[in-house]
Structure formats: structure tokens, C-alpha cells
Fold this sequence. Notes:
The structure holds two protein chains of two kinds. By secondary structure, chain A is an alpha/beta fold. Chain A has helices spanning about 40-50, 70-80, 95-110, 130-135, 190-200, 210-215, 245-255; strands spanning about 1-5, 10, 20, 25, 35, 55-65, 85-90, 115-120, 140-150, 155-160, 165-175, 175-180, 205. Chain A folds into two domains: about 1-215, HUPs (Rossmann fold), CATH 3.40.50; about 235-265. In chain A, the strands form three sheets. In chain A, strands 11-10-9-12-8-1-6-7-13 form a nine-stranded mixed sheet, with helices on both faces. Chain A has a two-stranded antiparallel ribbon with strand order 2-5. Chain A has a two-stranded antiparallel ribbon with strand order 3-4. Chain B has eleven helices and ten strands. In chain B, the strands form three sheets. Chain B has a four-stranded mixed sheet with strand order 1-4-5-8. A four-stranded antiparallel sheet of chain B has the order 2-3-7-6, covered by helices on one side. At the A-B interface, α5 of A face α1 of B.
Amino acid sequence: MEIAVCVKPVPDPETRLRPGPDQRTLDVEGVKFVLAGYDESAVEQALLLRDQLPGSTVRALAYGPAPRTPEVLRSCLALGCDSVTHLEASAPVDDPMAVAAALAHVLASRPADLVLVGKQALDDEEGLVAPALGALLERPSFSSVTDLRWNPERSRFTFQRSTDTEIERWEAPVPLVIGLQQAWNDPRTAKLPNILKARRQPIDTVPAATIEAAVAGRNGRSLPLKFELPAPRAGARMIDYSTPAEAAERLVRLLREEAKVFP
Amino acid sequence: MVDFSLTPDQESLRELARKFARSEMAPHAAEVDRNGRFPEEIYRKAWELGLMNLNVPAEYGGTGLGLFDQCLIVEELAYACAGMTTSIIANCLALEPIILGATPEQKDRWLKPFCADYHLASFCLTEPSGGSDAAALKTRARRSGDEYILTGEKCFITNAPHAALFTVFATLDPALRHKGITAFVVPRESAGLLPGREEEKMGHRASATSTVRFEEVRVPATDRLGAEGEGFALAMRTLDQTRTPIGAMATGISQAALDLAARYALQRTTFGKPIAEHQAIQAKLATMAQQLTASRLLTWLAAWTIDRGARGTLESSIAKCFSSDAALRVADEAIQTFGGYGYMKEYPVEKLLRDAKLTQIYEGANEIQRIVTARELLKRYA
């Protein structure tokens, strides 16, 4: 089985992000971009399925500028993906339709039986690439998927979808697009020798010009108006009191008069 | 052009070590320190990720890193827990004599199966009667046909209660002093090899330390490392390689102490302002940062020198000695910054002082490092 897993470089969750000077983009100076969140689970699931289905291969794809995008693809190689493809871009790509169009273009020339993506990216959490990719590739697409398993007798995948009110059980034939919520186990950590080996493995590239033609005006149709940091927290206010009754009375007064929690 | 920047390879191995240290080691450091537990599950994970056996060439199943890269990893691990780091890197020390002195056949026989699975090894040089005066060791090796019979006792042996393999230094005749010392590789299952009870230590409590007694242990002559009488030189060449990572270990402790102290100083208020705004505390933090930066650069210089093929005895003895002395001072100042809280076990800084202390003592006490430094130095003036 040919498995394609599409990933997005996102800021390291441990970095402190700041709005850039224009306040419409994030200041990425010194920010490290990593494979994280549901994308890590998608890669893990792809590798687990490959190991279970002999003869399978896993190819990771990512669309975005260097160096962040090839770096994240290298971590996919270190985790064990067989090959990686970098869809080059001259600037960061935020529009989910543009991302889906670029990926669909590349996947059309080398189709995969299963296209796995994280159900949403850890940074903007839009969750739109999986359904858009399904639509553009004209394949069934499911999001928020867990317990993804191949049933060899029926030649279909079975899986669950958790919604707010119920758990759905599905089966679907390939080719198929899956927005994954959770793999069978926690994402693995790449081993040191594999990390070093991945530095010397090739990264296939699709030039920015080719991708831009395929994306054709889909990028940048919606833009954030403004990023701002949440107001700093005011900190705790201590209440002086001599008896518990006095403490309660003062607290209720503050909640009513200052915090306006009660009418 | 001197360049202090790391290569992408080095960035990624440091990142892996940092991630492992902070997510797998740090959360357990306080508990393991309190209970003196040997957290073998953590060491096994370190092995799985390739963070153990760092110095063993890749063809024998190790990670095959140079000293500089090893130091980057050791600093990150020690930042989270120096005791665990001691047990993780004890394999490097125990296997180094094999890497330096074994024949290709011996390397195949020992290193490959050893590195193919999770195993610990112990380096047995120090004895109850002394560690620094290694040429005076008393453990005897008596030749008997195509075997040697080892008799004697080693002490302060890291990982000994859990080790599968021991590199042992013994003398054919104490009167020969260093010329009698010969090295052997002895598997755990050898009859008469008896690790003692685990010691209760001041720090590095995640690491296990015990004596190892040799009661008429029969070792095939094919398990001798190098020729008879070459053991002392082999031990010294080993320590030339493994001394520098102790500088990195101390640097990791200092970095942890400075980070804790600086964060605390920004949030702790006295006299109406954060103590970081008091000059007395600023002076402490500045001095700590100087000590830390010098430790790291001396360690990097020693590792870089040795990676370029030089023996680096001067550089590594300076790095080990300076960084370990610095770690003790930096940890001490971190406790002082925390005040009474720093003295409480509830806070993580007092552990740093207890852990730092050992770096002044093991892998060549700092008194010996100063002798080595002076000897190397004076050669250049003679």
C-alpha cells in the first residue's frame, strides 16, 4: 500500500510567540518549526500501518518555505518515512485551500492509496486541509478519525469518528483521505543514529513555480487582521480578614462591586 | 576563523538529548534522588534512542560520536539529572579501554552483542586503598596456563550492581608499579565476581555504586586487553577521553542552577521588588553566568582539541577541574539566592550542590587534575 502523509511545519509549542511589527503575521525570528500535534500522530499511524502491511511505503509531503519545511521533512525521515517531498514556496502558506491544491497537484502525479493528514494543524487549528484535499482529489474524506485499521478480507479501512454526541464506526475503500485524530500509540521519538542518517538522505523537491501554477490564486484569499497578545494577568489580590465570616463578606462585596460577577 | 556555531547534525543531537532529558529524566529526578532508586526503565529508553554507548563506533553497534558531540549530549542530560547521567555515560568509560585497546576480534566479540541490546558495563580501577594512586593498585592477576586468576577488591564502581561486563585493571606484581598493570574484560557471570551492597551516597543517587570483589576469578588469556603491563597506559588514555565529558556534566549542573536562580530571582519579592532588582543578587547571577560560560567553553575547547587527534591532556584536565569547581560554586550561589527555601529538599537546588560535589572527585580528583595540568604545562617551559 502506498501511504502519503501530509505535514505542516508549526512553531515549537515551547516557544513564546510574539506578533510581528505589522501585527498581521507572527514574529518568527529565532522560532523553531517542528512536526507537532496531530501531524505527529499521522506520521506515527502511517509507520504503524506500513509495518503491518508488507510491501507498503510511506511518503511524507509538506508545502512551505525553506528552511523550516525541509527541516520538518528531515524529522519525518528520522522517524522512518521512506521518502519525503518538499513542495517549495517562497513565503509561508496559510490558506488551507492553497495547501490542499498544492498537495492535490503533487499527489495526482503519484497517487497514494491512503492520504493521511493530522485532523488540524497545531498552530491555526483550522482543520480544513483534509476535507479540501478529499474534494480536490475526488475521494472520500473523513476527519477526526481514530482507530484506523485495514481489513484485508474486505479490502477496506475501518475507523471511528468521535463527534460531540456519538462515536461513529465506518469502513471505506481506498483511495481515501483521512484527517487523523489519534494513532494507535503515542508518537515515537526518532533515534539518534536515524536522526544523523536522515541528514544525509535526499529530499525530493517540486519547484515553487510548478506549485504556484497549480495553486493559481488560491493563496492569500483570507488574511488575519491583527494578532495581539492577551492582556497580562493582573495577579492575585489578597483579602485581609480576622474571622472567616469577615473574609466571606469582603469577598462577596468585591465579587459584586469590582468583579461584577453578581448583580 | 574560529566558529562557535553548531552544525545541523549537532543541533539535532542536542535537541534529542534535551527532549529526552526534560521529558523522560527531569520529571523523575526528585523522586529517584529521594529514594535512591536505580531507574533502569529510563536507562533502557536512553539506550533505545542511541543516547548510551555514544563513543562506540557505529560498526560495533554504538552511536560513534566524537567527543564534542558526546559533550553536547552529556550537558543536556546532566541538566535534568546528573546522577542518571553518570549511570548512562558509565558505559562510555567502561567500554573506552575496549575501543582503544582491543583487537578487532575482541571488539566483535564484546562490543557487538553488548551494544545490540540494553546492557550496562563497569570500569574497575579504583580500590579501597586508593583511587588517585592508580599505579599502587593491589588486585592481583596470576597467570595459570592459558588463564589469569584475578583476586582483589575494587570500590566506588558505578553501575556494578547491574553491570553485565566489567573492564578490570589488575597487577601481575605490585613491585612493578604501573609496569605490572594489565587490563581484562570480565563478564558478570564469571565465578567469583561479586558486586557488593549498593552504597548510600550524598548525591548522584539515581546511579548505583558498589564494591566488586574478585575471588579467584578465572579469565581466559584471550580476554586480556593489550599486552601484559599495558594496562596503566590504557587506563590513562581512557581517562584522557572520558575526563572532558565530566566538564560537560558539571556545565549542565551549572546551567540548571543558573536557570533556577534567575527565574526565582525574577519572581521572589523582598523590600517591595523582585530580588533580581537587588544588586547583591545581580552580582551573584553575573558571577554564576561567568563561571558557566567559561566551563562550557573550556569543555568545548578540550573536546575540539581531542577530536582533532591531539591527546588534549592539558585542555581536558583544565576543563574537568575548572567546570566541576565552578559547578559547586554556582550550585552554592543558587541555594543562597533561594535563601531558606534553597536549603529545603522541596526545592530542586540543594540536589545540584550534592550532585556537583562528585564531579570534583571522580574520574580523577581535582587535586590530580591540577598535578596533571601543571605537569603538562611545565613540559612547555622545560
